[in-house]
Amino acid sequence: MVKKDVEKNNLIFLFIGYFFVFASGVLISFFLPFYLKEQGMSILAIGGLLTFGIALGMLVFGFLFGRIQRKIKLKAGLYLSAIFYFFNSILLFFIPGSMGVISSKVSGSFGNSISKISSDVTMQHNSYKKIHRKLSSIHLIVDSFSIVFGLFISIILIKYIGFRNSLLFFALLIIPSFFFFSKINENTRFKSNKKFKDLKLNKKLKLLFIAENIHWFALSSSFALVITFLITDKFSASINWLAYLFSGLYISIMLTTFLTRKFLDKLNLYKTSIFGMILLFLSAIIIILANNIYYVFGALILEGISAGIWVPSKTALYWKETSPELREKASGYLMGWRSFAKAMGPLAGGILVTYLGILAPFYLKSVIALCAIGIYYYLLKN
Questions:
Q1: Cys-Cys crosslink for 84: which of 25, 110, 165, 292, Cβ 3.0 to 4.6 Å?
Q2: Do 257 and 308 form a contact (C-beta atoms < 8 A)?
Q3: Which domains does the chain have, with CATH numbers?
Q4: Taking 70 as the threshold, does the pLDDT of residue 201 lie above it?
């Protein structure tokens, strides 16, 4: 089999395997805050638990895994991500209360950190410069489709067997991924003797890094936890609306990524990043002004369009600014800081809502979107 065919097969097996990985984490990622709220926990308490678990998992492992990635087989990283996602559900099923939540988020955060680095590295080793944004787009489509699939399965299972028993189904959902990961060929991997200390962030990469991380902080401070309290406390909506809202978000990501990828390939990466952030700003403003839940639904669709444009663009920019032999190390480094930003979000959201009101996280998101626009505009002009 020629090298090009090997690379193509590797990518197909990666995307199918990660469909099951991403789908298996949906129940906890999107419905755990609702489950904890039903048990009488405050938004500040839930935010604290989530932040502690995510920080303990993603932050430490995000920094370390990029350094050891070259010392183990590429498939070992893929297998590890699936294993930690499996325990993400199993631990919450068997360990009750706060300890179960923290243990689950630590395991899930390990899995998330490894999966992001391993999938990123696998794509880089099986692609060439002209298809970087295309691959990132396909990855985003697979990610979004798996989440939509998981959302509707979650609603059905919660209705008939409850949240806790549904955890077992989502743990078993991870099993097919092992088969597809086993088919990936290691021979496409880059060879390099460079050490981690050789990694240096140039000025462009530093600014891209800042823009992305303030974005993830704003996003995680206003996402599943805050949305749950927003729709239940302000609009008295049921758990089904969580599935509708987040499905609208990820379906719009899928459709935007699919419909615009050829068009976006002809545009400057900085310009598309700016446009994506403008749409994120508008989505936050719509939620701030919303007087019924349908405006929230529309705002999340707009946010999905934003992500469908911005994510492939910012990923291509990272790959463009990092030499191939240092991308694994860069992925680990950037994942560590991205993890820190995402970990602080739930606690920040809980604090903002508790002391400033339910809309405070969306004001923060709008300000941060403007800051990111400023960074991308500066890079465009310089």
A1: 110
A2: yes
A3: 3-182+199-381 (1.20.1250.20)
A4: no
